[in-house]
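Before relying on records like the one below, remember that each one covers exactly one chain. Contacts with other chains, cofactors or solvent are not represented anywhere in the record.
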Amino acid sequence: MSARDFTTAGYSRDMEAVRAAIDATAEARGPWVRDIGLLSDCLHALTARPPGTRRVGLDAILRLPRRPALIAEVLDRAGLGPQAERAEILRLARQVVALASSCTHCLAWKADGARLCLPCQRFKQAHHQVGACARCGRNLPLRQGRCRMCLYALAHIGERALTSGVQLWMDGAGLRPRWRGYRLVTGQDGIQRPVAAESTADRRQPWVSPAIATVWQLALFPAPPRHWEVLHQRELPALSDRAEALRRELAQLAARQQWRPRAASAHQRTLTMITAWLGVEAPIEEADLWAIARLGNSYNARRLIPFLTERGLLIPDHVRHADPHRAGVARLRRRIPAHLLPEVDVWIAVLRGEGRRPSRPSSWKTVNGYLGYATPLLESWGPAVTSLRETTTAHVQEAVDNASGVDGVFTALRSLFRALKRERVIFHDPARSVTFTFRFALRRPVPSDRLVGLIDRVPTASGKVAVALTAIHALRAQTIRGTLLSDLNRSKGTLGVRGTSGRQTRLVYLDDFTLSLIATMLKERAARWPHSTNPHLLVTRVTAHDPAGTQMSHKAFQYFFRCLGINAEQVRIDRILDEARATADPVHLMTVFGITEDTAMDYLASAHPERFPADPIAP
């Protein structure tokens, strides 16, 4: 820009001060300061000033693509800078994310914040002739009379580029000259163009997929799910060196952990397919792994999830790992009338411990259960009331009387109105004076012929231990699944039982038979999975080598009892009921099985009904 342009823009006085500041900085730092284009950079910073201000703001300095600290120093010498410390400017500049922009010469879209893309920088260094391009008319570095963008368009579009526009492209993208079936040919005008090559079988070379993703490739918009069934029967591209190394790591892991040959082959096939098409430069979507696994029985992705997670190559599928009970609450909320939804949200917040006063938070499973009972009632009340303040005891009593699950409906409504009263949303609790009759179901024992040889019929050692802890010590399925190896003390014959908080609440004294089953199971585990790091007592082939150390699923635990044709909870109830028949002491039941006093009395009432006569004044 000339001095006349500065004067026209009103920057003549400021630019004279900037020139003097650049000379002073050059004397202090070296003559190289005059040769790096600081005058143009300072002009860009000055044009970003708000009207009526003299100094450049720090935010405008940080938006400069290069040398913000040096430009701030020059402007401070000229009396136009932000007056900030150099260390502070460098610290803030490292935190600024590079803005996406277009290359000034070829107009390619990029995200490094630089003025020119790397190919244009190299083109400028190689061709010093600057003039008007014969095609676009811009003053740029030329080769054969054309700029780099026009040469690129002629090479890949042809003569149509002389009369048409150029489509927007990404920096570094475009037609790859090494695609299979193409070779570069130099024409009479000196421009290289890709033409079809001879298709001889002996000259075919392995080709790399053009769709390989890179870490620095930004997403313009959320991509739709990939349809891997389209590529199922196609020829796979050649693996890159990093993909081959990853494939060898998986093979070594399968051999070390003694995977079954069929499982190792299925996981290798899945890894080969996804890395051949996408590469390993960028993390892999978990959704793509499961999409490939659904192509057939010869693919599997279950053990690839922890394998890729350990190496930082996996993007988790948050939809797949979402809490199902929390998703159930969201679905039920959409069914509630809009004018009652704010009050229901207050109830949910109280259940989750987020009310005005701190309280013990309930799990999303509990919230989902309460909302499942209350939602049909709220839907029926919606047209009749504009707020839950208008509900009366008659509404609640009618809902309880007509409900099939009386206990659940009553508990949910009591919780709802109690929470609203506590948060001062309503003035009166209509469910407080509602009464109903509880249904008390006597616990029944399991027929003895179904319990004969129960443990002997279980095919696996882990199953025998699970059935023994349930049938002999009456432990719940959730408790057994969460038991750790560190909770077992074989020398003392005890097993620590953990509560819902994850801490040990009591000790169970194991008998010799159960200890022998556990010893057999541990020997089998050491022989089958010698490198397992899972801390839980019971593991499966899925969880044995899971680096997260997850416990076995509820479905896998119930499989032990499905083989026997019986439910685990039935076996547990039968064990406690048998102990209750042998003793009439509720304290003994509470000590041995860790149950509450009300539950112990219920078992005693089922075992000794003659000692618990009916209440003469009961309704």
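The chain is about 45% helix and 5% strand.
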